[in-house]
Amino acid sequence: MSLTTPTSTPSAPAHRAGPLLGFHDVAMTFPDGTTALSGVDLTVSRGEFVSVVGPSGCGKSTLLRIASGLETASAGVVELATDHIGYVFQDATLLPWRDVQGNVELLAELKGRGVKARREAAATAIRLVGLAGFEKHLPKQLSGGMKMRASLARSFTLDPELFLFDEPFGALDEITRSRLNDELLKLFTEQHFAGLFITHSVAEAVYLSTKVVVMSGRPGRLVGTFDVPFPMPRDPDIRFSPEFAAVVGEVSHALKEAHS
Ligand code: ADP
Fold it and tell me: How far is the CA of 157 from the centre of ligand 1 (A)?
């Protein structure tokens, strides 16, 4: 199964200048007193794919939840220049009684889009993620990778300018994960969204991203920023090069320093 170019692309929202997402000295202390984030400065602009690496519990999901508006920061300023946001979780969160078509239509349905508009948006998104032919399959008939494709397609129906990914491939086997990494990169270069991607895997972060940021332990702060020097579209073989290994080494070293 591979990605195909859609016959019609979702209508792109009007472009605006400046970052799509800006965190300025953002902190998050929960009502129980747990401080998950402290002094976070981060921007994500159009054309950028930013990965955040850090161990469990350092505040990565909290960062994403604040970016999506699900959570409100307790201090600092969060600027969001778009309301076209896609959010993909580690769990594909598909409704078991709905087939692929029904699941992919769900967000557009919840947004109140008419039947025809959401059918068309879903059909385009399903083609985009390479699930054409599987529209009538129920989640239990899909592999883990296919479920994640359906989850991605569901978000694509909202024409995201900014895509938030919370370890979407963390539960997949290595081969499926690698294939989905390639396909996500292809979507990124073709669809022009900005990405904020959370992962435990430094190699995945470097391969997918234009920029990788390293988070300290809780309360999470950004302790290192690495521009990834490899051009887009990215050659999959870059992963086996000494240059790639050198960048992975630098980021891994920063991560180790932050947690030793
Ligand atoms: P990560 O995604 O890096 O694993 P999280 O952002 O999920 O980390 O959580 C960061 C810290 O904040 C953890 O210690 C977690 O237990 C705590 N936390 C997350 N959500 C809440 C909440 N609603 N109330 C209290 N503590 C929370």
Answer: 29
